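Today's session is about reading a structure prediction critically. Students often jump straight to the picture, but the first step is always the sequence itself: look for stretches that repeat, for charged clusters, for runs of hydrophobic residues. Only then move on to the predicted structure, which in these notes is written as discrete structure tokens rather than atom positions. Here is the chain we will use throughout the hour.
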Amino acid sequence: MSGPLHDEMTTALTDLRAQQDRIAETLAQLGSVEATSTSEDRLLQATVDGQGRLTGLKFTGRRWRDLAPKELAAKLVEVVNRAQDQAAQQTASLMSGLMPAGLDPERLRDLGTDLDALFESAVQDLASGRGDR
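Below is the predicted structure for this chain, in token form.
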């Protein structure tokens, strides 16, 4: 079997295999994403994984014991949020190479795993001209 259709199918299959390899490589890299943030006063340090889950929390010295509960809680939230933002940026950066033109990784994260909503959003973007980035 040869001819233009066969050549197109061979090219498409080669492209698909290359994309599969890129996806596998990216997934491996996503598994190692980690972000750590330290409070400005260096009392607290939080580490999160690529999904933003808290994997480590470190208290330095003893001054944190003198903080009011609300102040300590606010510092914890701040340092964890900052680490989560850093991990999200790393993840989005890795994913951006896999995304079709016009699909924003931030919007993908906002839509979650609802593929119907994801594709509908992409179609609406293309129809409105926003997908031409």
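Discussion point for the tutorial: The chain is about 60% helix and 15% strand.
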